[in-house]
Amino acid sequence: MTQLNNQTQAQALNPPPRLLMGPGPINADPRVLRAMSAQLIGQYDPAMTGYMNETMARYRKVFKTDNQWTFLIDGTSRAGIEAVLVSAIRPGDAVLVPIFGRFGHLLAEIAQRAGAEVHTIEAPWGEVFTPEQIEEAIKKVQPKMLAIVQGDTSTTMCQPLEHLGDICRRHDVLFYSDATASIVGNEFKTDEWQLDAVSVGLQKCLGGPSGSAPVTLSERYVNWVRKRKKVEAGIRTEGHKDGSEPFIRSNYFDIPMILDYWGEERLNHHTEATTMLYGASECARIVIEEGVDASIARHALHGSAMVQGVQALGLKVFGNLEYKMNNVLGVYIPDEVEGDKVRGQMLEDFGIEIGTSFGPLHGKIWRIGTMGYNARKSAVLQTLSCLDACLAANGYKGPKGEAAAAALEFYAHG
Ligand SMILES: *Cc1c(COP(=O)(O)O)cnc(C)c1O
């Protein structure tokens, strides 16, 4: 075990200045950090319950929904995923998970841990599914729920969702999407697309720190989970035996209990993570101030400028560009350079972080994000200039000195 000496122990936290241009997390908007430094108030202080209601109203705008049940699950994005899945799935329920990247595997794993009989279909990395492929699988599996990622940062692909709601209604399937990486950076319409449950996180296009998971739930979803028997404190029933539904196998993520806490009843469940609520609420306020559609357009603009820049360096962009998320791009690492050395120099000499990749793409592509607070011209130009210089310093044989110029040209003339 290493012992810290007294001097190290006494040092204040002082993280190095960084520009985070990977697939998330990104730098938080300074306004969010300021909101998070506000003093705590009591759990049932009318000011606090007022903030809770205000947060719900703000996230209805972010999600483009009239769903009453739009609120925060405490925890990182996967807390939202887990709450949605564990509250809805009874042991043995069939769940269909179409997988087109790493986060699809995560949904499948969480559904399985919740006791689901998980069925998956897979698209090649860099591609998405057609509605027909998904409907065909639904017909075969007849699932209780369809669980699908919208934007998967591991492949940079954005799955079109607009035709899936109809299919789910026709086959009486609950429709859930993890839109953590895509919300407010790409179009998302909860009500128009007939989603029953959506969960997100703050650390991508919403421009906050990770640690809060906004969710929105349709009446259809809420009616379903409320039907499931709640465990009385201390009583462990085995479900089924008395003809009731088996209970929800999590206290922390028991959505009916959480609804009683966020609703009029204000029944105590957990202690709301007040500081995270301040941050989450401010993230939504900032997006509403800008306009949800303006935020999406900003991500499209700066994402495209980044693509122009890397292409001017002769680099190839990964995946089917027709379905690329606005806010992240994958770029092939040229053969003659060592990917980790370039990334390392970008971080060390310039303080700029870009992302590596997982699974089949490991060592093959870098991932560069333009999201939230960092979806702006200066961040794009700094990153491109830095990449340009570090490629040149690491033996890259392609074009040099072109990246920022190409992006500037794009900003000027489109
Ligand atoms: C980034 C991301 C997450 C992150 O989950 P955390 O629990 O916050 O780490 C989840 N889902 C998707 C699709 C993501 O892109």
TrEMBL record:
Residues 1-24 are annotated as: Disordered. Keywords: Aminotransferase, Pyridoxal phosphate, Transferase. GO terms for molecular function: alanine-glyoxylate transaminase activity; L-serine-pyruvate transaminase activity. Residues 1-13 have a biased composition (Low complexity). GO terms for biological process: glycine biosynthetic process, by transamination of glyoxylate. Its cofactor is pyridoxal 5'-phosphate. Substrate binds at R367. SUPFAM superfamilies: PLP-dependent transferases. The modification N6-(pyridoxal phosphate)lysine is found at K204. Pfam families: Aminotran_5. This is (S)-ureidoglycine-glyoxylate aminotransferase.
